[in-house]
Amino acid sequence: MPSEKRRFVVNTALTGLSQFAAMLSSIVFMPFLIDAFGIGTYGLFMLASSITAYAALLDLGVGSALTKMVAQYAAEDDSAAMSGAVSSALSFYCVAGLVVALGMLLVGMATGLIFNVDERGAILLRNMLWLGAAFQLWYWPASTARYVLAGFQRYDILAKTGLLATVFSIGAIGVVLVTGRGPVLLVGLLGLATTAVSLVNIGVARRLAVGVPVSVSRASRSHLRAIFVFSWAVFVIQLSDVLFYQQTDRVILGVFASAAAVGLYEAAAKFNALVTYVSGLTVSAVLPLASSMEAQGRHASLRSLFMRGTKYIAALVAPVSLILMLLAEPIVRAWLGAGFVGQGLVAAVLLLPHALVCLGLMGDAIVISKGRIAARIPYVIAQTVLNVALSAVLVVKFGVIGVAIGTAVAHLVDFPFHMRFLLKEARIPLRDWLREVVAPVYPQLVVPLGIGFGLRTSGIVSTLPGVGALALVMLGAYWTTVYATGLSPAEREEIRNLASSAVARLRGGSSA
Q1: 503 in a structural domain
Q2: Are residues 178 and 209 in the same domain?
Q3: What is the pTM (predicted TM-score) of this model?
Q4: I need a surface site. Which of 44, 165, 338, 417 has the fewest CB within 10 A?
């Protein structure tokens, strides 16, 4: 168990480091790209990114299914089954890449009809989509290696290649800024960076899967059937994620408002994306671990993972969400200037649901690993329809903040149904969940909020360093309070042991 916990923590930390680096680079370079492109052109660039994100839905949950199967077959030492599963997924991704490329070509041909853009904007958006379509032919088949690495729990490799991708992306942005070229060149350079990183993943995956032959000719209907039996419900959840987390908001703004509105919205979206990244990394390594526990019949361990994992996730995500809500306006003013100040309120609206929705992250990951997420599908569909409908109606009257309200309301309406489903699946009484998860985490939020409200109008929030210092003070005060009052003695000792182990590893690495 200690080594299993340590591996889980390390995998999560490595994934978080990679994702945070990518997120930080996008935040840092956003104002430079806006200055270089102009707000309208930058909005078109983000709109093209959102259309590409929609194309990712064609994954149909196959990636998650492949991760689970590789982990299972590796534990069972079943090379033949692993070969069939990986080969079948590869064949699916070859077809998916072709379909996505054709779809982006078609959307590119009709940009002037679909979106509220002028002729120049339509041509620019078309060119970005067509160039992106070419890279899809490689990206999809190559992504098979990433899920193989995840199945082997080699998140260290994925973290390194993720950091490499971030370095390449920063280089691409630097080239565009120095040369004064537009977003089409940036799309091309980012595509080349993704291609280079995927080659590294493929090389490592082949070394790990020695003795596991992989080719399209080894694909089989039985393995594809097994993949889709697991993946279809995951796909619906992924569909909901794509619709909720900014992509639909951008597309609705592009259709009913303008490219400039998409650019303005991106200021608020960066806050939402940051918390989404933090939320995602907390469960990034859960699927193979929970699958292993379920296969071994370790139900007590799964319950502990659900309860303690949920508590720790809430203690991380809830305060970050509320602190950013409180400081969003001064951050936007210091970061992007007075022209974006109104987006602070939009950011606050988008951030509010995260403080509650984080309570379902660990439960969702565990239920997915057990293949029991299908019962959640009707609620996800209803939530998605409500989000799209509200956003489309409210954007006409309220503009950018209208799509944010639609997203937030849909999340908050669904929350009690979501938690009822998860607690029923985990067979955990509501009173136990409130006592062991909610009580140790949420009352303590009054500490950072009190500090924030007391200093929010002071001079400290007039600069980004000042805002950052205040945010760290608020977060430190909260975590100190939770550590002292919300954790059991055994949990505090475990955290101290993990911290000591991490320090020892760092010292050993520096000495070497």
Answers
A1: no
A2: yes
A3: 0.65
A4: 338
